[in-house]
Amino acid sequence: MEKQQAGKTRAVGNILYAVRLMWGMCRGIVIHTAVISAIDYFGWVFYDLFFIRYLIGAIENQENFSYIMRFILISGLVFCIIFAYISYIDGSFRPRAGVTLYRKLYGMLYKKAGTVELGCFEDSDFYNRYALAVDKADENLSMIVRNLFGIVFSGIAAVIVFYTMYTIDSIAVLFVFFPIIGNFVFGYIYNKMLFKRDQELIPYRRRIEYVNRVMHLADFSKEMRLSNVYNLMKHKYKKALEGIFDTVEKYVLKIKYPAMVQKLLYLYDHL
Q: Is the pTM of this model over 0.70?
């Protein structure tokens, strides 16, 4: 029990550290990620609860058609502005900011690696953990920040939806729990299996990268021609590929079913 609690505390600390790290390197990504996440969830709340509800109520109460059209046009204009903003962030800001993040993050990682004793890199366990940290570090850091804001704003949106639906019909509240169960239960299982799979793939990817370096660098061209190293490298490459295929096949169902249930709960909620 204490180990589980310590693990959760460490996980929360790692997430907060990732956010602080991102803020220090490129705070614009953090700000725009938070804004877009808030827009996504509160846009869903507005459309599903208030927009449709207003239209149905206005038609039932036989309100003036011009008032209804004005509401629709204003809502459409707001959504167009939001769409333009998101398009600008995804198409212009994020690629440029991603270059800045990549340069600063990998500069920090390589500088840190330069201070580590050489013997550490001869330890396969250390090198596997280092390779896992370096592999797509910028993408993983962005994903952590995005998921954090997703959890925060989805929780707020769920509370708003829960309260609103409860005031309308207490039975309808049950439908709010479907996406929550999908995201927090099956989404957790999906991400956990994905992480475990990536951890097991690291040694095989390292071997493939090593073979690629040996086969393409001019420094090893003489050894390739004068010895049997080529066949050895070919064998190592083949065994690494087999390891990747076996690992991916091992986790296919473990990843597929939680993802499928999560999607089904999401779709069921939006029927």
A: no
